[in-house]
Amino acid sequence: MASNPLERVREQRAMKLLTALQDDLHAQMRLEKDELGRSEENKRASLRRKARIARLSDPQERERIWSREQLPSYEGVAICSLPKTRDFWREVEVSVWCKDQLDAACTLLDLPIDGKKLELVARIQDWVHEPEILARLEEQRLLELQQDAILASGRVFAFGSNTNGELGLGHRRSCEIPTEIESFRGAHVASVYSGFDANFAFARTEDGLVYAWGGAGRAIFDEASAKASRSKIQQQEEVEQNKHHARGGDGSCFLFPRLISSLSSRHSKHIACGRTGGHVAITSDKGECFTWGRGEYGELGTNTCESGAKAVTEEPTRVKMLNKVLVIAVSVGNTHTAAITDKGRLYTWGSCWSGQLGLGESKRAGVKDKHLQLCFPTPTIVEALQSKRITRVSCGAVHTAVVSADGQLFTFGCGDGGRLGLGSNDGSFHPQHVSALENHVVLDVSCGSWHTLCIAREREETFPVRAPRRVLVTATNCNGSNGGFVYAFGSGLQGQVCFNTFSSLAKIFNHDFTLFMRSSVWANRSTRHFQVGCYVVFDLEYNGPLDCVAACLPALRHRHIRCHAITTSSHHSCALAVDGNLYTWGQNASGCLGRKGSEIDAPELAEPAVVDRGSFRGYGVGPIVSIAAGHGFTLFATGPWEPREEPAKLQFQLQTKVNRQRL
Question: Which parts are the RCC repeats (predicted)?
Answer without folding.
Answer: 154-205, 287-343, 344-406, 407-458, 580-640
